[in-house]
């Protein structure tokens, strides 16, 4: 699948023949279509991408996507700036951008106002308006939205895993050398002994830190919700219950009495 979604169709075909692994035909067709459209975008031909976005309008709107507007925006900018044809730009705006005036009123107003500065746009208040999106940015945006509608993440899992690993390795390598000097061993299997700061694009799981123990919850020490709605780590709930002969205890953050049996596990 990695080779297919990366556009390496010949390599993917050879790999599937030699390994017996297969990719559903409809997915092969979809990714072939995606890369065909991406090649047109790179060649500054937005027509196939606009046709696809128009066909998928309802799905894109449901996701809150601005892809279709961005495509029309760039086409308008191309006519106005690259081709220096204000008449063509105006006619295009009337046919296509007018449909977005309610949702993107500010953006469409700025784009139309840029007509007043044709030839001197770089020195105008609208210089930044016509610099976004670029064809490269639109290429990435289109691929991301296309994959999302197929149920795939914007980036391939292999790429994400390798990227996260390359960020984590220096920290883990340093930790290993420190532990060797101290004669210590890494004893935890479900969590890392150090914090790895990953960018937001590489964060997929919610992290909950117990407000009582200040420890991050894990599979063996999951988050538990009390009847009052406050959430603590499982070990903290058990510990609070053991302090009372009746196993009843007050929530640390409100006066509600409860016990361990009333707590429910939370899945983020």
Automatic annotation (TrEMBL):
Q: Name one GO biological process term.
A: proteasome-mediated ubiquitin-dependent protein catabolic process
A GO MF term: ubiquitin protein ligase activity
What CDD domains would the database entry show? dRING_Rmd5p-like (cd16652)
Q: Which InterPro entries match?
A: CRA_dom (IPR013144), CTLH/CRA (IPR024964), CTLH_C (IPR006595), Fyv10_fam (IPR045098), Rmd5_dRing (IPR037683), ZF_RING_GID (IPR044063), Znf-RING_euk (IPR027370), Znf_RING/FYVE/PHD (IPR013083)
Query: Has UniProt tagged this entry with the keyword Transport?
Result: no
- Principal location: cytoplasm
Any Pfam family from its record, for instance, is: zf-RING_UBOX
Task: Give an example GO cellular component term for this record.
Answer: cytoplasm
Positions of the CTLH domain: 30-88
Places the protein is found: Cytoplasm
Task: Decide whether keyword Membrane is in the record.
Answer: no
Residues of the RING-Gid-type domain: 210-254
Tell me the keywords, alphabetical order: Cytoplasm, Ligase, Metal-binding, Zinc, Zinc-finger
* Membrane-crossing segments per the record: none
What Gene3D superfamilies does this protein's entry cite?
Answer: Zinc/RING finger domain, C3HC4 (zinc finger)
Zinc finger motifs (RING-Gid-type), residue ranges:
210-254
- What SMART domains has UniProt attached to this entry? CRA (SM00757), CTLH (SM00668)
Alphabetized PANTHER family for the sequence = GH10162P (PTHR12170:SF3), MACROPHAGE ERYTHROBLAST ATTACHER-RELATED (PTHR12170)
Q: Which family does it belong to?
A: Belongs to the RMD5/GID2 family.
Q: What's the protein here called?
A: GID complex catalytic subunit 2
Organism, by scientific name, is Sugiyamaella lignohabitans
The coding gene here is RMD5
């Amino acid at each position: 699948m990695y080779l297919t979604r990366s556009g390496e169709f010949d390599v993917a075909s050879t790999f599937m023949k030699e390994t017996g692994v297969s990719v559903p035909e409809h997915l092969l067709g979809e990714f072939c279509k995606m890369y065909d459209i991406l090649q047109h975008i790179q060649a500054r031909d937005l027509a196939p991408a606009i046709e696809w976005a128009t066909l998928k309008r309802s799905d894109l709107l449901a996701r809150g996507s601005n892809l279709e507007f961005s495509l029309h925006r760039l086409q308008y900018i191309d006519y106005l700036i690259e081709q220096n044809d204000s008449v063509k730009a105006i006619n295009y705006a009337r046919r296509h951008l007018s449909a977005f005036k309610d949702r993107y009123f500010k953006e469409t107003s700025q784009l139309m106002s840029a007509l007043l500065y044709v030839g001197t746009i770089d020195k105008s208040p609208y210089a930044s308006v016509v610099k976004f999106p670029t064809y490269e940015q639109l290429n990435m945006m289109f691929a991301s939205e296309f994959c999302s509608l197929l149920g795939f993440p914007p980036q391939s899992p292999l790429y994400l895993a390798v990227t996260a690993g390359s960020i984590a390795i220096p920290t883990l390598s340093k930790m290993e050398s420190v532990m060797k000097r101290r004669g210590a061993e890494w004893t935890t299997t479900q969590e890392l002994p150090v914090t790895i700061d990953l960018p937001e694009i590489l964060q997929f799981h919610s992290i909950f830190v117990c407000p009582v123990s200040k420890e991050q919850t894990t599979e063996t020490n999951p988050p538990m919700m009390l009847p009052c709605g406050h959430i603590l780590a499982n070990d903290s709930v058990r510990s609070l219950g053991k302090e009372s002969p009746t196993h009843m205890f007050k929530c640390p953050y409100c006066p509600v009495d409860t016990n361990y049996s009333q707590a429910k596990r939370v899945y983020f």
